[in-house]
Each structure stands twice: as structure tokens, then as C-alpha cells.
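Review box. Two proteins, two foldings.
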Amino acid sequence: MICEWCEVSHATHATNTVYWELPDGRKVICITETPCVRCVACGMEYQTEETARAIEDQLFLIDTNELNKQLTYKELMYKERILKRNYFNFS
């Protein structure tokens, strides 16, 4: 896999911990075991555009009042949705 930062083919799939601001800006949550790309050449760890969009969409679709300060990526993705789709995504 090619790293998007240094463009060297030493990147691999991994997981890491990220901190994400809720859409309403009330608080930040810690999401552990989040899929990421890790590059051994430059040391960068980053989320793909798809993973970032999945997190953003899920945070718009669930009741964020029920979220703990920390949860795993899978726990976040399995939260019951109160909307069927993200009506705020205009891309």
C-alpha cells in the first residue's frame, strides 16, 4: 500500500486512537481501535477518507447524548441510528 503522505509503498492497515469533536461542538470523544493507515517509512498514521466520512456520518445519525467519553470504532458504528442517512452531507 502506498502512503498518501510520503508516497512510499511501506504503508499497512492498522488501528489507532483518535479524538473526534461531536457535530454540535459540545464535547470531544475518544475512539479507540479506529482503522488507519500506518507508514513505517515516514511514521505517519492517518484515517482514510472513507473511515473519516463513516465516523462523521455516524455521529450525525445517532443520539450523541448517549455516548461515553471513550468507545471503540466498532461500538460507535453499531450504535442505533435515529436517522436513515446524513441529510447534512452535501458532497
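Next protein.
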Amino acid sequence: MKAAFPDAEVAIEALANDNDHFKAVVTSAAFQGKSRVQQHQMVYAALQGKMGGDLHALMLQTVAKD
């Protein structure tokens, strides 16, 4: 994730004790001017295919940093 968003602040929280369900808040200047859908697509691309594999469920919040 840091390779794709070097300035990112990432907070991750487990939502269950199964190592599959997480909540993530990602804050980055790279999200400026992007729609929420585009921001989420950027994060999923940075996860390089881990969604649906290593990660079963991710509640994602993105924030554009000034």
C-alpha cells in the first residue's frame, strides 16, 4: 500500500477475530479530485489482488488529504 500511496496515513481495525474482516481508513493527497469510487478503485489496485483472497471483507473509507 505504501508503494502506491507514499504519503498515506492508514488505520486498520479488525472487525472480527477471523483475520478476514477489516475496516481501513486511508488518507492520501493522491485522492484529491477523484470520486469516491475512483479512490476505492485506487486502493483495491494497490492491494494487488488480495481482495477475495487474503482479505475476505474490507470496509473502506478514503479521505483526500490537502
